[in-house]
Design brief:
It is a single chain. By secondary structure, the chain is α/β, with parallel strands linked by helices. The protein contains 49 helices and 21 strands. The chain has a ten-stranded mixed beta sheet with strand order 10-5-6-11-9-8-7-12-13-14, with helices on both faces. Strands 15, 16, 17, 18, 19, 20 and 21 form a seven-stranded mixed beta sheet that branches. It has a two-stranded antiparallel sheet with strand order 1-4. InterPro entries: Ion_trans_dom (IPR005821), TRPM (IPR050927), TRPM-like (IPR057366), TRPM_SLOG (IPR041491). Keywords: Coiled coil, Ion channel, Ion transport, Membrane, Transmembrane, Transmembrane helix, Transport. One of its GO terms (molecular function) is ligand-gated calcium channel activity. It comes from Xiphophorus maculatus (Southern platyfish).
Length: about 1400
C-alpha cells in the first residue's frame, strides 16, 4: 500500500477519501483472490522463445529461470504453476462517449465459487439475482439477421430488467458476447434513470489483448483499456459494454476455454443459493441461451441439460443452434447419423470438412440426448415482421416454467415453484397463461405463502390475481401471527421508524416496571399491540385500539402520554379493553390489510386492499387521517407530498361512495355517517372526516343535511326562523300547526311535554336564546360602564357579576365535557386551539382583573379601564354568532385569513417605519432623553405619515421656535432641533426631504399596494373555498349547542347545579348523545355494510367508465384494437400460406410416379415459434448418457446390439471393468437394453444381472383406512427421500445394508416377513451404472403391516425418537422420489386401490 502512495503521490492528495473507501476492498482482494504464475521456465520445442506455459522468458521471475544446462526435471503444469496474490483488479475505463467504467479482477482457475459470489454481492455490492441467464454460442463474429438481432437484444434486456437477472457471458468483444454487450448498451442509452443491467463477463486471462494495462499490484482505479480489434491477432479484447469481468487465470498464455470449468462452478453455486427475498426458500433459477456455436457450445448445452438447466436455442442464428432446431420435434429414432451429417453440412458449410467421423457420431449422440430431454429444451424462432409470435423474454421464462412443471423429482410441488418464479419475476402475464389455467383448481390454504410473497415483494398485480383465483383473505389473516409477520417485513418507511421507536419505548417501560427482569426484554419484537398504539396515535386519541391488548400486558405497552396517567385510569381502560376483546372476532381482514398498505404509503396495494374492506367509507376516511398525520410528522422532503396526494385520493373515494349511497337511500346513507365502526377504533365516518380535515367530504349535501337535521332537533328543517323565534316567546303555539315537528305524523303522536322539550332542547332554539341572552348581557355591561359604575357595586352591577359567573360555569363545563374520551390534556389542548374559546378566556380574565381593581380605592379607575377594554373583547366575541349564517359565516373566515396576512405585513412595515423614524429623529434632535417623545418621534410620527399626516419639522419654511422646547424641559413640547446663530435649524433640509420621499414611495405606494394585493389574493383564494370551510366549521357550533343546556345565561346556572349534583352526589354517568354516534344492532349493521359494498362497486364502475371515456383512453383503446386486427390478419395470411403449401404438396405427389408412402407432409415451422417434440419409447436412456469418464457416445440408432457399429470401441480399461473374464467371457453377458458406451462391469459388483431389492413397507394411518403411508429413508445430506433397499444375492432376504438403518431387531423382524410380502414388479432397470456387460435388475416387494403388530410398534418408536432416518410418508404423487421408485410407489397404490 505504501508503494501505491509513493507512485501516485500527486493523485493521493486529491482522492484521499476515495482511497480510504477502497482500502477494505483492496485488503479483501489480497486476502482472498489469487492468480496463477509459472515457477519453472522450460522452452517449448514448438516455440523456442516461449515457455511451455505460453509466456516468454521475460514474463517469468528470476527464480523461475534455470541455467541453460539444467536437466533436473521436466515442466509439469500441476507442479510448476502455483498461486500468488492477484495483481489485476479495480475499475476498467474503456474511454469514448459516456466513459463506460466496469469492475474487473484476475482470479485463479481453482478459486472457490463461494468466494466469487461474495466478491460479486458484497464487495461489488450487486443485488443477488432472481434469475441467472448464461449466454453461450459462437465466439467468433457471425452474421445475425437484423430481425433476430433486434428480437434477441430486446428480449434479453427485457427479461433481465423485469426479473432482476444477471447475464453471464464470455466477456470478449466478439461473437455472441458482443451482441449481449450491444443489448446492454442500447438499454443504457434509453434508460438513464433506472439501474444498470448486470452483464458479467467470464473470460480467460491468457487470451486478453492489452491485459498489461490492467496490472497493478494495488489495483487500478481506473485502468484505461483500449479495444484494438485490428492488432489483437489470435487474442481477444474485452467488451466495453459488460459491467463486470472475472478474468480466469490458469498460469498459461494463449489457451482458450480456460474459464469453462470455473464458470460452470459459479453457475452451479448461484443455482444453489436461495432467492434474495425474505420469504422464499427457492433457489435461484438458471437458464442457458445459445446462438450459433460449434462443438464447444454443443458440449455446454449437453452438460447444462444433464444438470437440469433449461436451454433456449435461437433458430436461425447459425451452425449448431440451427442443427438442433432442425431436428427438434422428431422422434429420437429418426435422428440418425446421416441426418445429423446432412444438417451439419448445410449449417457449417466448409467448416464441416474439419470434423472426423467419430466426432460426428459423438455429436449425434449428444443431440439425441438433448432432444430426448424435451422438457428442458425450447426452440425460439423470431417473427421477421416483428408482429405476432412470442417474445424472447416470454420464451425464456416459459422455458423455466416448463422445466419446473415437468420436474418429476419435485412431485406435486412443481406448481409451487412455477408460481414462486412468476412472483419473483413479477410476470403476472405468465402466471395467467401458464399457471392459473382453467384446468387448475386452487385451495385458499395453498396460496397463503404466495400471498405473503406478493405482499412483501410489492407485487400488486399478483395480489389481485391470487384473490381472483380462490384466496380467501379471512383465512389468510385468520392467525394474528401472519399479520404480525407482515408488519415485521415492512419496507423502509416513516411508519416503520415510528414503530421501532415505540417498541424501544415499550421495552424501556417494561424494564422499569419489572426491575430485575429488564435484561430479558432487550430483544423485544414488534407486536400488534405496538401497531395498535401507533395507529391510535395517528388516528387520534378519540379512537380506541384497533388491536386491543389483554389486561395482562396492556400497561406495559403504553405510549408516552399514557405512561403519565394514573393507575385508576389504567384500570378503567383495561376493563374497556377486555370488553373489546370479546368483539375482536369481528375484525375485518380487508381492513387489516388495507391499514398495512396505507401506513407504507403504497397506492397500488392499498387500492386492492380497499376493495376488500368490509367498511370501505370509514377505511377511506381513516386512511386520509393517517396519511395526513404522517405527512405532518415526516421530515422527508418528497414523501409528505405523496402522502397528501394519496390522502386526497381516498377522500375522493369516500366522497364517491357516499354520493352513491345518498342518491340511493338518504336515510341509510346518514346512518353510515354516525354508525360506530368496530374496525376503525369505535369511531364514526363523520368524526374521522372532521379529524382528517376533509372539508370536501363534510361539505357534501348529504352530510350537511344531517347536520341541519341535528341543528333543528325535533323541529322540522322546513320551519322558518321567525316562526321558531315566535314560539320561543309564545310556546303554546307549538300545540298548533304554527311549527312542524319531524315526528308529527308518526304514531303515536308527540305529547304536550314532548313538544315542549323538543322545542327548547333543539340546538337551533338554544342558539337563538343564547344570542338574545348575550345581547342582554352586553347591554347590561354597557349600562354599568357608562351610567351605573359606583364606588360601591349597585344591584345592576351585582346582576352583571352573577351573569358573568354563569358564563364562567359554562366555560368550565365545556372544558370538562368529554363525550369522546379524549382525556383532560387532549380536551384542554383542543379547547385552547379554538379562537372563540381564547376570546372567552381573555374576556373572563380581564373581567376578573378589572373587578379586583375596582374593589380597591387606589385602583378603582384602573379597574374601570380594564372593564372597558374587556367590553371590547366581549363585543368581538359577538362575531361567533354569525358563523351559523350562510352569508356572514364565510366572511368571518376571510377576515381571519386577512388578519394573519396583516400580521406578517405589519412586521415588514415596521422595518421601514423604524428605519425612517430613527434616522429622522437622530438627524433632527440631539440627545433627547425623554422616552415618550423618543417613541413619538421615531415610531408614532412615521406611522402617521402613512395615513397622510405630513410632518412640519423637516422643512425650515414651517419652523416655529415657539412650538418646541430648547432643552426639552417642557413635557408638552418636543425638543427643538440644533439651531444656528439665526435661530434656524442646521440639519440638511435636502436630506430629510429625500428621506421622506423615499419613505413615502416604499411605505405608502409599494407596501400598502402590496397589502391590498395580498388581501385581494387571499379573498379570491379563500372565497372559492369559503363555502366548504364554513360547512366544515359549522359542525363544531352545532355540536356545542347540541350538548349545551337548554336555558340561556344567567338561568343556565340551574342546569349546571343539576349536572353537578348528578355527577358528584348521585354518581350517575352523563347522558350520552346518540345523534353523532350510534351503535347499530349486528344484523342491521351487516345489512348496512353489504349495501355500502354494493354502492362502492357502483362508484368504482362509474370511475372506470369515466376514465375510459377520456380522450387518452379512447386513443389507447383504438390503438389496441388496430393491433389486434393486424395480428389476426397476419395469422390468416399464415394459414393461407400453409394451405397453399399443402395443396402444392398434394399436386406434386399426384404428378410424380413412384411416390414413397413414407414421406410425410411438410410442416410449417413458422406457424409456431415454440415447438414441442414428439416422444417415443426406445431403449434405455440413462445407461448411455456418458456417466463414466471414459464412455464412448453411442447414438440412438447404434444402441441395439443387432446393429453394426464399425467405429464403436468400448473402453475396457480402468477400475477392472472387465473383471477376470477376458473379451471372450464378456460376450456371454450382454445388456438386454443394448449398448451403453462402456464394457466390463463398471461400478457394479458383477457381470451380468445385479440383483437389487426395494422394500415398500406400508400401513394405514388410521382405522378408517383413509390414508395409505409408506416407510421412507431420509438422506440427511441431500435432503431427499428413498425407499429402503439395496443389492442382494437373493430376493428372499433383505439387503444387508439395511441392518445399519433398521437395527438388528427390526431388520430380523422384517426379514422374516419377506416371504409374506407381495411382489410388485421385477426386471431390468435403466440405471446410470449399467454397462454393456453388467446391469441392474430390481425386485419391488410390498410388506403391509397391521397397526397392532410388534413390528409396527418398533418402527413407530424409531420414528418418534428422532434418532433414525426413517419416516412415515403419505403415498402421494407429490412425494419426492427417483423416477423408478415413484413408478414402484404408484404400483403399490394401485395394489391397495388408492389413487396416486
Amino acid at each position: 500500500m505504501l508503494k501505491y502512495f509513493q507512485t501516485n503521490k500527486g493523485e493521493t492528495n486529491l482522492a484521499m477519501p476515495c482511497l480510504r473507501e477502497r482500502l477494505p476492498f483492496i485488503s479483501w482482494i489480497k486476502a482472498n483472490i489469487s492468480k496463477k504464475e509459472c515457477s519453472f521456465f522450460q522452452r517449448d520445442p514448438r516455440k523456442e522463445q516461449l515457455c511451455r506455459c505460453g509466456y516468454s522468458k521475460t514474463d517469468h521471475t528470476d527464480e523461475a529461470i534455470k541455467p541453460e544446462d539444467f536437466t533436473g526435471e521436466t515442466w509439469d503444469k500441476g507442479k510448476h504453476i502455483h498461486k500468488a496474490p492477484t495483481d489485476a483488479f479495480g475499475d476498467i475505463s474503456f474511454g469514448g462517449l459516456g466513459q463506460k467504467t466496469s469492475k474487473y479482477v484476475r482470479v485463479s482457475a481453482d478459486t472457490e465459487a463461494e468466494v466469487l459470489y461474495e466478491l460479486l454481492t458484497q464487495q461489488w455490492r450487486l443485488l443477488p439475482p432472481n434469475l441467472l441467464i448464461s449466454v453461450t454460442g459462437g465466439a467468433n463474429n457471425f452474421y445475425l439477421k437484423p430481425h433476430l438481432q433486434k428480437t434477441f437484444r430486446r428480449g434479453l434486456i427485457k427479461v433481465a430488467q423485469t426479473t432482476g437477472a444477471w447475464i453471464l457471458t464470455g466477456g470478449t468483444h466478439s461473437g455472441v458476447m458482443m451482441h449481449v454487450g450491444q443489448a446492454v448498451r442500447e438499454y443504457a442509452l434509453s434508460n438513464t434513470i433506472q439501474g444498470q443491467v448486470v452483464a458479467i463477463g467470464v473470460a480467460t486471462w491468457g487470451v486478453i489483448h492489452n491485459r498489461d494495462k490492467l496490472v497493478h499490484e494495488e489495483g487500478c482505479f481506473p485502468a484505461n483499456y483500449v479495444i484494438d480489434t485490428q492488432g489483437q491477432g489470435a487474442l481477444a479484447c474485452l467488451d466495453n459494454n459488460h459491467s463486470h469481468f472475472l478474468l480466469v487465470d490458469d498460469g498459461t498464455n494463449g489457451r482458450y476455454l480456460v474459464e469453462t470449468e470455473l464458470r460452470a462452478k459459479l453457475e452451479k453455486h448461484i443455482s444453489c443459493r436461495n432467492l434474495g427475498n425474505k420469504v422464499s426458500s427457492m433457489t435461484i433459477p438458471v437458464v442457458c441461451v445459445a446462438l450459433d456455436g460449434g462443438p464447444g457450445t454443443l458440449d455446454t448445452l449437453y452438460k447444462a441439460m444433464l444438470s437440469g438447466t433449461p436451454c433456449i436455442i435461437l433458430e436461425g442464428s447459425g451452425r449448431i443452434a440451427d442443427v438442433i432446431a432442425q431436428v427438434f420435434g422428431k422422434p429420437v429414432s429418426q435422428i440418425t447419423i446421416t441426418l445429423i451429417r446432412q444438417q451439419m453440412m448445410e449449417s457449417f458449410g466448409q467448416e464441416y470438412e474439419k470434423f472426423e467421423e467419430h466426432e460426428i457420431i459423438e455429436f449425434t449422440k449428444k443431440i439425441q440426448d438433448i432432444i430426448g430431454m424435451s422438457h428442458l429444451l425450447t426452440i425460439f424462432k423470431a417473427s421477421e415482421d416483428d408482429q405476432g409470435g412470442v417474445d424472447l423474454d416470454v420464451a425464456i421464462l416459459k422455458a423455466l416454467l416448463k422445466a419446473s412443471k415437468t420436474d418429476e423429482s419435485r412431485g406435486g410441488e412443481s406448481w409451487k415453484r412455477q408460481l414462486e418464479l412468476a412472483i419473483t419475476w413479477n410476470r403476472v402475464d405468465l402466471a395467467k397463461t401458464e399457471i392459473f389455467t382453467e384446468q387448475s383448481m386452487w385451495k385458499s390454504n395453498d396460496l397463503h405463502w404466495a400471498m405473503t410473497l406478493a405482499l412483501v415483494g410489492n407485487k400488486p398485480e399478483f395480489v389481485s390475481l391470487l384473490l381472483e383465483n380462490g384466496l380467501c383473505l379471512r383465512d389468510f389473516l385468520k392467525d394474528d401471527n401472519t399479520l404480525c409477520e407482515l408488519y415485521k417485513q415492512l419496507p423502509n418507511c416513516f411508519f416503520l421508524d415510528k414503530l421501532a421507536k415505540r417498541v424501544n419505548l415499550a421495552s424501556s417501560s417494561r424494564s422499569q416496571a419489572l426491575g430485575q427482569r429488564a435484561h430479558v426484554l432487550a430483544g423485544a419484537k414488534i407486536s400488534l399491540t405496538h401497531v395498535s398504539d401507533e395507529v391510535r396515535h395517528l388516528l387520534g386519541k378519540f379512537t380506541q385500539h384497533i388491536y386491543p391488548s389483554s389486561a395482562k400486558t396492556y400497561h406495559l405497552d403504553m405510549s408516552t402520554e399514557d405512561i403519565s396517567s394514573s393507575v385508576s385510569k389504567d384500570q378503567t381502560m383495561m376493563q374497556d379493553l377486555l370488553r373489546q376483546n370479546r368483539a375482536e372476532a369481528q375484525r375485518d381482514p380487508g381492513s387489516d390489510l388495507f391499514l398495512w398498505t396505507i401506513i407504507q404509503n403504497n397506492k397500488e396495494l392499498s387500492e386492492i386492499a380497499w376493495d376488500q374492506c368490509g367498511d370501505c367509507m370509514s377505511g377511506a376516511l381513516a386512511a386520509s387521517k393517517i396519511l395526513k398525520k404522517m405527512a405532518e410528522e415526516s421530515i422527508d422532503a418528497d414523501e409528505p407530498q405523496e402522502m397528501l396526494e394519496l390522502a386526497k385520493h381516498y377522500e375522493n373515494h369516500a366522497i364517491g361512495v357516499f354520493n352513491e349511497c345518498y342518491n340511493s337511500d338518504k336515510e341509510r346513507a346518514q346512518k353510515l355517517l354516525v354508525r360506530i365502526s368496530c374496525f376503525w377504533g369505535k369511531t364514526t365516518c363523520l368524526r374521522l372526516a372532521l379529524e382528517a380535515n376533509d372539508k370536501n367530504f363534510v361539505a357534501l349535501s348529504g352530510v350537511q343535511d344531517l347536520l341541519t337535521q341535528i341543528w333543528c332537533g325535533e323541529l322540522s328543517v322546513e320551519n322558518p326562523v321567525w316562526r321558531v323565534l315566535v314560539c320561543m316567546v309564545f310556546f303554546p303555539l307549538i300545540y298548533t300547526r304554527f311549527v312542524v315537528f319531524r315526528k308529527q305524523n308518526v304514531e303515536p303522536p308527540l305529547g304536550c311535554w314532548s313538544r315542549l322539550v323538543g322545542l327548547y332542547s333543539a340546538p337551533q332554539v338554544k342558539f337563538y336564546g343564547n344570542i338574545i341572552s348575550y345581547f342582554a348581557f352586553l347591554f347590561l355591561f354597557a349600562v354599568v360602564l357608562m351610567v351605573d359604575f359606583q364606588s360601591t357595586p349597585s344591584i345592576v352591577e351585582l346582576v352583571l357579576y352573577f351573569w358573568l359567573f354563569s358564563l364562567v360555569c359554562e366555560e368550565i363545563r365545556q372544558l370538562f365535557y368529554d363525550p369522546d374520551g379524549f382525556g383532560f390534556r387532549k380536551k384542554a389542548k383542543r379547547y385552547i386551539h379554538e379562537m372563540w374559546n381564547i376570546l372567552d378566556v381573555i374576556s373572563i380574565v380581564l373581567f376578573c382583573l378589572g373587578l379586583a381593581f375596582r374593589l380597591t380605592t387606589e385602583l378603582f379607575y384602573a379597574g374601570k379601564i380594564l372593564l372597558c377594554i374587556d367590553f371590547v373583547v366581549f363585543c368581538l366575541r359577538l362575531m361567533a354568532i354569525f358563523t351559523i349564517s350562510r352569508i356572514l359565516g364565510p366572511k368571518i373566515i376571510i377576515v381571519r385569513k386577512m388578519m394573519m396576512d396583516m400580521f406578517f405585513f405589519m412586521f415588514l412595515l415596521s422595518i421601514w417605519v423604524v428605519a425612517y423614524g430613527v434616522a429622522k429623529q437622530g438627524i433632527l434632535i440631539h440627545n433627547d432623553n425623554r422616552l415618550d417623545w423618543i417613541i413619538r418621534g421615531a415610531i408614532y410620527e412615521p406611522y402617521l405619515i402613512i395615513f397622510g399626516s405630513f410632518p412640519e419639522n423637516i422643512d425650515n419654511a414651517a419652523f416655529d421656535i415657539n412650538s418646541c422646547s430648547m432643552n426639552g424641559t417642557d413635557p408638552l413640547k418636543p425638543k427643538c432641533p440644533v439651531l444656528n446663530e439665526n435661530q434656524m435649524p442646521v440639519f440638511p433640509e435636502w436630506l430629510t426631504i429625500i428621506m421622506l420621499c423615499v419613505y413615502l414611495l416604499f411605505a405608502n405606494i409599494l407596501l400598502l399596494n402590496l397589502l391590498i394585493a395580498i388581501f385581494n389574493y387571499t379573498f379570491e383564494e379563500v372565497h372559492d373555498n369559503t363555502d366548504s370551510i364554513w360547512k366544515f366549521q359549522r359542525y363544531e357550533l352545532i355540536k356545542e349547542y347540541y350538548s349545551r343546556p337548554a336555558a340561556p345565561p344567567p338561568f343556565i346556572i340551574f342546569s349546571h347545579l343539576y349536572l353537578f349534583i348528578r355527577k358528584m352526589v348521585l354518581f350517575k354517568a352523563p347522558i350520552s348523545s346518540t345523534e353523532f354516534k350510534k351503535q347499530l344492532p349486528q344484523t342491521e349493521e351487516e345489512e348496512l355494510l353489504s349495501w355500502e359494498a354494493l354502492m362502492k362497486d357502483r362508484h368504482l364502475l362509474s370511475a372506470r367508465q369515466e376514465q375510459s371515456q377520456s380522450m387518452e383512453r379512447r386513443i389507447l383503446d383504438t390503438s389496441q384494437k388496430v393491433t389486434t386486427l393486424t395480428e389476426r390478419m397476419e395469422r390468416l395470411e399464415e394459414q393461407v400460406t400453409q394451405s397453399n403449401k399443402s395443396l402444392q404438396w398434394i399436386v406434386d405427389s399426384l404428378k410424380s410416379q413412384g411416390f414413397s408412402a413414407k414421406e410425410t407432409q411438410p410442416q410449417d415451422e413458422s406457424s409456431n415459434s415454440l415447438r414441442t417434440p414428439e416422444k417415443e419409447d426406445g431403449f434405455h436412456e440413462k445407461s448411455h448418457q456418458l456417466q463414466y469418464p471414459d464412455s464412448f457416445p453411442v447414438p440412438e440408432e447404434k444402441v441395439s446390439l443387432s446393429s453394426f457399429m464399425s467405429t464403436y470401441g468400448s473402453s475396457e480399461g480402468g477400475n477392472d471393468h472387465a473383471g477376470r473374464s477376458g473379451p471372450e467371457g464378456l460376450d456371454n453377458y450382454r445388456n438386454p437394453g443394448g449398448r451403453t458406451g462402456i464394457k466390463g462391469r463398471g461400478a457394479l459388483s458383477r457381470l451380468g444381472p445385479n440383483l437389487n431389492l426395494d422394500l415398500v413397507v406400508t400401513r394405514w394411518r388410521d382405522s378408517a383406512r383413509s390414508v395409505l403411508e409408506f416407510l421412507a429413508v431420509l438422506n440427511q445430506n441431500l435432503r431427499s427421500l428413498a425407499l429402503p433397499g439395496g443389492p442382494v444375492d437373493s430376493v428372499d432376504h433383505l439387503p444387508g445394508n439395511l441392518k445399519g438403518i433398521l437395527g438388528d431387531k427390526l431388520f430380523e423382524a422384517l426379514d422374516a416377513k419377506v416371504s409374506e410380502g407381495t411382489k410388485v414388479s421385477e426386471g431390468y432397470v435403466d440405471d446410470c451404472r449399467n454397462t454393456d456387460n453388467a446391469w441392474v435388475e430390481t425386485t419391488v416387494l410390498n410388506i403391509h403391516l397391521d397397526g397392532t403388530s410388534q413390528v409396527m410398534v418398533d418402527i413407530n418408536n424409531m420414528v418418534i425418537s428422532g434418532d433414525s432416518c426413517l419416516q412415515w410418508q403419505e403415498v402421494s404423487s407429490r412425494i419426492k422420489l427417483s423416477p423408478n421408485q415413484r413408478c414402484s410407489l404408484q404400483q403399490v397404490a394401485e395394489l391397495h386401490n388408492r389413487k396416486f
